[in-house]
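Incident log, support desk, overnight shift.

02:14 A customer reports that sequence design results differ from what the structure should imply. Their input is reproduced verbatim below. On-call engineer (initials T.W.) acknowledged and began investigating.
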């Protein structure tokens, strides 16, 4: 089969279904060796992520027309077809013909018949979908929506579902160690400064040349909350405990004007290599990269002025970008993450100077990983004073979800 965006998207769906790899890693690896034009690469992204964002809805439509069991590979092809015809409004002939061509010959008659029946019943199928629960209409696990319903107002849950199913805008943090924000905006047509978000710019496409030069780093403005709350000063000694791939580390280096020391840790060797490359590209000369697994315990390196603890989390605040998180999560993940997050914080506290600052942060929306961790730390360490909490909610603030708590060691 000749390489094409549809072929690559189908391969990505099959790999996603049969492995535990996350979607972004799958599509990145496949595109790395694919000989596709820029528009074709973008179309492959759209198809793959679009199907994952709408998985339950697409399966609802398929099952309306085919009640017999469908082979998993055939369902993948049908998902791509329904997404194009119902949600992308692809021309009917192209949507059907190109989708059918993806399948093996024995499967093509079935796929052709289902897609043509779908076109004949498109209005009715769309109407039927609107009467389904939110979990089907917006393709989120029902147990996750139930959690959010207990935490947020019904309108907020609906808006959160809508938010998660929209493609994310492209944001870039201008690396002020190398480039002034005004110069970056002038040199990159269509970019503009995000209101009330210093250094962050919305860009119409990935600014490849600026990225390679180290003039910017692609990240959502919500990632800046924890860094600004930490408020590192030039000349200080700072620990970024869970640093890879380095977006926050680079911002800390900028806030410190490249003066002082940042020890940036991660437990994964491959992630550390990416972190090193990013720091070199950004010109963050004060960063020292170190491999360490905090779950296994602390390290013999006390005396940090400030510690950023951006813990591993369930990423429920960043589902718009991490499109398959909703399907990988399990109900017991939240309590499991809570225990790990508290264990990491315990390992870090002996490294903080008296009077030093610890910022605990996540990109989660869940109480177990946010407020409950804060309360746990306050009970266990009464000398750890909670100074400030900031949060970002997508439906309220218009950015990815984030949570950050600033503590001072008394």
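02:41 Re-run completed on a clean worker. Output:
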């Amino acid at each position: 089969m000749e390489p094409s965006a549809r072929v690559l998207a189908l391969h990505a769906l099959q790999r996603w279904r049969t492995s535990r790899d996350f979607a972004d890693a799958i599509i990145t690896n496949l595109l790395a060796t694919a000989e596709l034009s820029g528009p074709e690469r973008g179309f492959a992204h759209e198809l793959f992520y679009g199907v994952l964002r709408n998985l339950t809805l697409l399966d609802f439509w398929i099952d309306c027309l085919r009640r017999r069991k469908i082979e998993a590979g055939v369902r993948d092809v049908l998902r791509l077809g329904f997404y194009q015809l119902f949600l992308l409004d692809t021309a009917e002939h192209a949507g059907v013909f190109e989708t059918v061509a993806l399948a093996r010959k024995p499967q093509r008659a079935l796929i052709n018949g289902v897609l043509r029946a779908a076109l004949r019943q498109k209005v009715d199928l769309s109407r039927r979908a609107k009467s389904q629960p939110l979990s089907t209409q917006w393709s989120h696990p029902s147990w996750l929506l139930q959690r959010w319903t207990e935490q947020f107002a019904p309108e907020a849950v609906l808006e959160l579902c809508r938010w998660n199913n929209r493609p994310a805008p492209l944001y870039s943090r201008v690396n002020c160690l190398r480039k002034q924000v005004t110069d970056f905006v002038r040199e990159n047509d269509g970019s503009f400064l995000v209101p009330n978000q210093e250094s962050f710019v919305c860009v119409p496409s990935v600014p490849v040349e600026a990225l390679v030069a180290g003039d910017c780093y692609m990240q959502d403005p919500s990632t800046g909350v924890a860094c600004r709350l930490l408020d590192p000063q030039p000349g200080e000694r700072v620990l970024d405990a869970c640093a890879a791939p380095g977006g926050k580390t680079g911002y800390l280096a900028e806030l410190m004007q490249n003066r002082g020391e940042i020890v940036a840790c991660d437990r994964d060797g491959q992630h550390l290599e990416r972190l090193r490359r990013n720091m070199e590209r950004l010109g963050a000369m004060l960063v020292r990269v170190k491999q360490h697994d905090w779950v296994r315990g602390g390290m013999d390196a006390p005396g940090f002025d400030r510690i950023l603890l951006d813990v591993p989390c369930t990423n429920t605040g960043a589902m718009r970008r991490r499109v398959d998180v909703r399907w990988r999560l399990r109900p017991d993940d939240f309590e499991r993450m809570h225990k790990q997050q508290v264990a990491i914080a315990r390992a870090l506290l002996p490294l903080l100077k008296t009077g030093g600052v610890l910022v605990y942060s996540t990109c989660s929306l869940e109480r177990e990983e946010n407020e409950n961790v804060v309360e746990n730390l306050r009970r266990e360490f009464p000398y750890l004073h909670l100074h400030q909490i900031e949060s970002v909610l997508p439906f309220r603030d218009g950015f990815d979800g984030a949570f950050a708590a600033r503590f001072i060691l008394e």
